[in-house]
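Entry 14: structure prediction run for O-methyltransferase. Input pasted below.
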Amino acid sequence: MFHSIPEAVTERMALLAAMHEADKTDGTPRFDRLRQIPPETGRFLCLLAANAPEGEWLEVGTSGGYSALWLAQAAGLRGTRLTTYEISPRKAALARESFAAAGAQDRVRLVEADAVPLLAGHGPLAFCFLDAERAILRACFDAIVPKLVPGGLLVVDNAISHSHEMAEFLEYVPTDPRVDSLVVPIGSGELVCRKL
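Run finished. Output tokens:
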């Protein structure tokens, strides 16, 4: 997968990385700022998703589409499709541009909406990447975990970089008997949960 990423994808990833850096300093309101994972986290997600069991793939928190482009590489290998949710109109428009520019529209379906009330309509789930506001993490977790197939994976971003904001959530997840979980120190820290 990593040795055959199309040039259009790498070019779009580089553009999104530059836009992400610019957003940090240009005064964009916090909610609407681009947020994206570093490349090593993208590769990690790609490997996990490529080895997930059969089932649907989700992402909550598309931003400009960077992580979805990584997941699209695995989706192409597996012959599946990622559904990704973004609530910000600015970010959703940018993600649409990203998927078109990278030629990934056949592997990624963008839904511009609040994911929380729609998660119950999905399943069975094999893989989910959750990169959303901390306030909705528990609601998303509680909606996603029952839909995961045995061996299905849920990955939550920022488990180290924002651990103080996620403390209650990070204390709760390891006590949930439906999943095994651990925090992987890659990028901003990834909480990886596997359905039993």
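Notes: The chain has six helices and seven strands. Will compare against the previous run tomorrow.
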